[in-house]
Design brief:
Blueprint (H helix, E strand, L loop, with lengths): L3 E14 L3 E8 L3 E7 L17 E8 L5 E12 L7 H17 L7 H15 L1
Helix pairs in contact: 1-2
């Protein structure tokens, strides 16, 4: 059994999977691009609020699976850059940046400077 990995995770894309699940893609400083499966995440109610949502920085704990999609065990919010959605041009630019980063950051490869630069851009855009 693999050891649990705890890392900061910047959510850059979310994709519906099935009727109730989501796959979120993002980057980490030490593990590059990571994909996480959130089972039942599309079922929102009075008591459920998505911690892993687009343009959020979280600390996540997960175990690596055999494939490329992992299941998070614990998620703690660190920062929410969702305020940039109120500015359509910045939101569009952030989407382009996210596509660029996810295209160029490979899984399993350290990218601390890309992670930090992306986090800083999102923070400034959200101001």
């Amino acid at each position: 059994m693999t050891a649990a990995i705890t890392t900061d995770f910047l959510v850059l894309r979310k994709t519906g999977y099935g009727d109730t699940s989501l796959i979120v893609a993002g980057i980490t400083p030490a593990h590059g691009q990571v994909h996480l499966m959130l089972k039942g995440a599309r079922r929102l109610g009075k008591r459920s609020f998505p911690t892993l949502d687009l343009f959020r920085l979280v600390r996540v704990t997960y175990r690596e699976s055999k494939g490329e999609i992992h299941t998070p065990r614990d998620v703690s919010p660190l920062a929410d850059f969702g305020a940039l959605a109120r500015h359509p041009r910045l939101y569009q630019a952030t989407g382009e940046l996210s596509r660029f980063v996810l295209t160029n950051v490979r899984p399993g490869v350290e990218h601390p400077l890309v992670f930090q630069a992306t986090r800083v851009v999102l923070a400034r855009f959200a101001e």
